[in-house]
Design a protein that fits this description.
By secondary structure, the protein is mainly α. The chain folds into two domains: 6-118, Cyclin-like (Cyclin A, domain 1); 126-170, no CATH class. 51% of the residues lie in helices and 5% in strands. The protein is built from seven helices and two strands. The chain has helices at residues 9-26, 29-44, 55-69, 83-87, 94-108, 146-154, 162-170; strands at residues 131-134, 137-140. The chain has a two-stranded antiparallel sheet with strand order 1-2. A hairpin with a 2-residue loop joins strand 1 and strand 2. The protein is globular. The two termini are 36 Å apart. The relative contact order is 0.10.
Length: 171
């Protein structure tokens, strides 16, 4: 459990309440967990950006940042929304949410290559997480021989050994 600094406990409480309510109504538990994780990290930064701003603006920025990173605007995704659908319930302007999300993404290093910010059910299908560099070339680790997959897993470059997952699912 993360210890939130005393001066940020009220804003943390307000934003987490909004995030939980929003995710229960419009998203799911995976989104909720990632959004709350982002909130905790923002509150624990030194100096924390959470000392200024409104709760609904931070909530919109966090949801927008996590949603973008998980392709929420792509209609082929199980949970998808337009930008307007995503932010309207929070009463925040589109540009405000997008700008706050950009700040959050930079601060927390949220990008397509970061396993930390990927929905667990999307890991297997997120091509960016599986990209590894070897001899100056980039490869999809899922298509490499098992020995190389194991090497990249041990180095912390991929989340698991894909060949082992296939074997587990066959048994």
């Amino acid at each position: 459990m993360t210890t939130i600094p005393k001066e940020l406990q009220k804003i943390h409480e307000d934003v987490s309440k909004l995030l939980i309510e929003y995710c229960e109504k419009y998203l799911d538990k995976e989104y909720e967990e990632l959004c709350l994780h982002a909130l905790d990290k923002l509150c624990c930064r030194r100096p924390s950006p959470m000392k200024r701003g409104r709760a609904n603006t931070w909530t919109a920025g966090i949801i927008y940042a996590i949603g973008c990173n998980n392709f929420i605007f792509d209609k082929s995704q199980p949970i998808h929304k337009s930008v307007q659908e995503l932010i309207t319930p929070l009463g925040v302007a589109r540009s405000t949410a997008a700008n706050k999300a950009l700040i959050i993404k930079k601060m927390l290093k949220i990008d397509y290559y970061a396993l930390e910010w990927t929905l667990p059910t999307s890991i297997a299908n997120n091509t960016m997480i599986w990209m590894v560099s070897m001899n100056g070339l980039t490869y999809d680790a899922r298509k490499l021989p098992v020995k190389l997959q194991e090497k990249f897993y041990k180095e912390g470059k991929i989340p698991y050994v894909p060949a082992h997952k296939k074997l587990e699912s066959q048994t």
